[in-house]
Description:
Blueprint: E1 3-7, H1 21-35, E2 39-43, E3 53-55, H2 70-82, E4 90-93, E5 110-114, H3 123-128, E6 134-137, E7 151-152, E8 172-175, H4 184-194, E9 198-201, H5 207-214, E10 223-227, H6 231-239, E11 243-246, H7 256-263, E12 268-271, H8 276-279, E13 286-289, H9 295-298, H10 307-317, H11 320-335
Parallel strand pairs: 1-2, 1-4, 2-3, 4-5, 5-6, 6-7, 8-9, 8-11, 9-10, 11-12, 12-13
Amino acid sequence: MIRIAMLSPIAWRTPPRHYGPWEWVVSQLTEGLVERGYDVTLFATGDSQTKGKLEWVCPRGYEEDTSIDPKVWSSLHIANLFEKAEQFDLIHNHFDFLPLTYCGLVSTPVLTTIHGFSSEKILPVYKRYNHRSYYVAISEADKNPELDYIATIHHGIPVEEYQFYPESENYLLVFGRIHHDKGVYEAIQVAKRLNIPLVIAGIIQDQQYFDTKVAPFIDNDKIKYIGPVGPEGKSEVLGKALALLHLINFDEPFGISVIESLACGTPVIAVNRGSMREIMVDGETGFLLSHWEEAVEKLRDISLISRRRCREYVEEHFHVKQMVEKYIEVYQEITS
């Protein structure tokens, strides 16, 4: 059996208490592999939870404890794994570009899942280690033409853990980080034009954006901000919504909240950028837009979308078991 070292980010606990998409994917993959009998050591924060083995040097996520310096503890965290590289048959890196700089120092193969490119400025690192590390893309849309990839593997979720809601209540939802990228301001404008209540859930990633583009509209009646939502309350908030508004202003690498919403039966109205066409079916699981203002008209047809079909679509295409199986195939290809 392959001995796998799973390198998680340390911004948040693995799995995260609420926000932390990369850590969440790492947790789902790790637990799925352990369930399949694989020997997995999770390198994460000390308060992380896993049925596998846990290795840590950083006690808590630096986003949760501001006394923890991200650069210092990220360096220690990565070094802790690579100093033990010979104990493993494969290192699976989910911690962006920095661990790639260790690839030439160890003989253990390194697989990197690229969870999106934060900036074009980090591309030189990926290019330099293009043939020293194996790369997995999380969507076809997020692939860089200058890099080679061993596979494209979409994220998967444990669909059975998401409650299905066959009927909705009368509110729209924004679910994710509060940032210009995610189109929160645009969602507010759509809700106001249609006079439909809007619930905003997520961490404030850009305080200035929140203060100037979001907070002035919050009245706790028509426009509500409820903060980040953890696993316990996620299904209810997602499932009772009339629709999820994903009016993004950037090329979304994947969009976990989209498939989570569909799993609960709630259709999605999204601007067609990045991976949206890969993870949605226009007219079947919601509507894809060329511009956010089109959401006003599309919402009038939201009742045409089958909430049951939204759930079935995720079961068919984005179950966590499918994600785990695809990664196992990649592991076997690398280590055989």
